[in-house]
C-alpha cells in the first residue's frame, strides 16, 4: 500500500469510528496529499467523480485536485487529468476561490500550449 492510500485509509477509518483521532487523521491525510507529487496523485485524480472516492470528504477530493493541477501548472504540463481536476474544482470547490483557480490554471496551460 502506498503512503497516500495509507493516509486516506486512516482518515476513513477515523471518520467511521467514535475515537478522538479524527483531527490527527485529517491532518495526516492533508499533509500526505500536500507532500505528494503529481505522478503520485494521478491515480486519485483519475478516480474523481467515481464511487471509489465518494467516501472521502469533498474537501480532501478538492485538495487532491488542486495539488495535482498546481504541480502540473508549475511544469507547464497539461493532460486529461489536469482538465478533470480543474473540472472537479469548478463543480465541487469553494465558490469563487476554487472555481477561479481552476479557470486560471486552464487559461495558463492553454497559453503555454499556444
Summed up, what is this model?
This protein is an all-alpha fold and 114 residues long. It is built from 6 helices and no strands.
- Strand percentage lies at under 5%
Shape estimate: elongated
- How many strands in all? 0
Number of helices: 6
Portion of residues within helices: over 70%
Order of helices and strands: HHHHHH
Mean pLDDT: 85
Structural class: mainly alpha
Radius of gyration: 14 Å
Q: Any low-confidence stretches, pLDDT <50, length ≥5?
A: none
User: How many angstroms does the end-to-end distance come to?
Assistant: 40 Å
Tell me about the biggest sheet? none
Brief descriptors of the model:
single chain, 114 residues, elongated, mainly alpha, 73% helix
Structure report:
The chain is mostly helical. The longest helix is centred in the middle third of the chain and has 17 residues, at 58-74. It has helices spanning 3-16, 22-34, 38-46, 58-74, 80-92, 97-113. It is elongated and about 50 Å long.
Q: What's the layout of helices and strands?
A:
Elements: H1 3-16, H2 22-34, H3 38-46, H4 58-74, H5 80-92, H6 97-113
Helix pairs in contact: 1-2, 2-4, 3-4, 4-5, 4-6, 5-6
